[in-house]
Amino acid sequence: MRKQPKQHRANQMIALLLEATALEIADRGLDRLTTNHVAQRAGVSIGSLYQYFANKEMLVDALLMQKAERLMGVVHERLPPLLGGDIATVTRAVLLGIFEQVAGDPTQRELLRHWQRLNAAPVFQTLERQMTELCRQYLMRHVDEYRIENLPALLFVLINAVQYTTARYLVEERSLLGRDEVIEALVRMVEALCQPTAQQAVKRGG
């Protein structure tokens, strides 16, 4: 059998270690995570793990970024078919996808519970950049439908408000609010900030 390229083997090892890290966090919780447990779960030596990650913090940082990429994958999957739709429909569909993704991933929920003490800033910044670009594309496509005076400022407020509200809600153990209530409140906020033009308002009013 032909020998696989080193880069391919490295990528396989990293994927294996991150999967093992995710499973350990889901089973034991973040505070009980150790590199020894990860190596055992992955079926590799601790020395092999340290060739790729110097400590458990680096493992968690890489896992955080991987989870962010998967969240964006949900957004990229849901958004394109809806680009021609109204802003409420688009916002609702994207938020529902994000909430469902996190709800079905115990590792992601555990990471969110501790995001304030993790190195989460690069992850939030990555999400903000990507979501800003997607929202910009949507609003530019509907430029005649909304009165946007300062697009950069609007997107900064929208993305961060949605991002941190969503994260805050998802870490609650027993929230007094239901998921749909939070999503609808965010949808209404987005609608309010993206004021329709007079022509579009009349059109919506029938």
Describe this structure as you would to a colleague.
This protein folds into two domains: 1-54, Arc Repressor Mutant, subunit A (Orthogonal Bundle), CATH 1.10.10.60; 57-205, Tetracycline Repressor, domain 2. Mean pLDDT is 87; it is low at 1-5 and 198-202. The longest helix has 23 residues, at 6-28. By secondary structure, the protein is mainly α. It is built from ten helices and no strands. The chain has helices at 6-28, 35-42, 46-52, 56-78, 87-103, 106-113, 121-141, 151-170, 179-193, 198-205. α8 packs antiparallel against α9. The protein is 73% helix and 0% strand. The chain starts with 5 loop residues before the first helix and ends with a helix. InterPro entries: DNA-bd_HTH_TetR-type_CS (IPR023772), Homeodomain-like_sf (IPR009057), HTH-type_TetR-like_transc_reg (IPR050109), HTH_TetR (IPR001647). GO terms for molecular function: DNA-binding transcription factor activity; transcription cis-regulatory region binding. This is TetR/AcrR family transcriptional regulator. It comes from Pseudomonas berkeleyensis. Residues 34-53 bind DNA.
In short:
This is TetR/AcrR family transcriptional regulator. The protein is built from 10 helices and no strands.
